[in-house]
């Protein structure tokens, strides 16, 4: 999946993946896609809830070799 920006949040514990995601989103225009890489298992629920509450769209998420990858489209 194509993304406009990639955020490396690997090795960060809650709430830092959300904090970094929020900051990265401010640098994108509406409709652009942020790809996030995280290793904190809690990020899956946290990012899904954050995207929904912020009016963004979680397009997809995958896990490979312990790395969670998310694609969020800015609302």
TrEMBL record:
Task: Identify one Pfam family in the record.
Answer: TusA
Which organism was this protein described from?
Halalkalibacter okhensis
Query: Where is the organism placed in the taxonomic lineage, from the top?
Result: Bacteria, Bacillati, Bacillota, Bacilli, Bacillales
Q: What is this protein called?
A: UPF0033 domain-containing protein
* Domain UPF0033: start-end pairs: 7-31
Concerning CDD domains, the annotation shows: SirA_YedF_YeeD (cd00291)
User: What family name appears in the similarity comment?
Assistant: Belongs to the sulfur carrier protein TusA family.
The UniProt entry, under InterPro entries, shows: TusA-like, TusA-like_sf
């Amino acid at each position: 999946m194509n993304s406009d920006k990639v955020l490396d949040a690997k090795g960060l514990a809650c709430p830092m993946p959300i904090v970094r995601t929020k900051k990265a989103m401010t640098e994108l225009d509406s409709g652009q896609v942020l790809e996030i890489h995280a290793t904190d298992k809690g990020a899956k629920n946290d990012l899904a809830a954050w995207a929904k509450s912020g009016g963004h769209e979680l397009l997809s998420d995958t896990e490979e070799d312990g790395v969670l990858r998310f694609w969020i489209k800015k609302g």
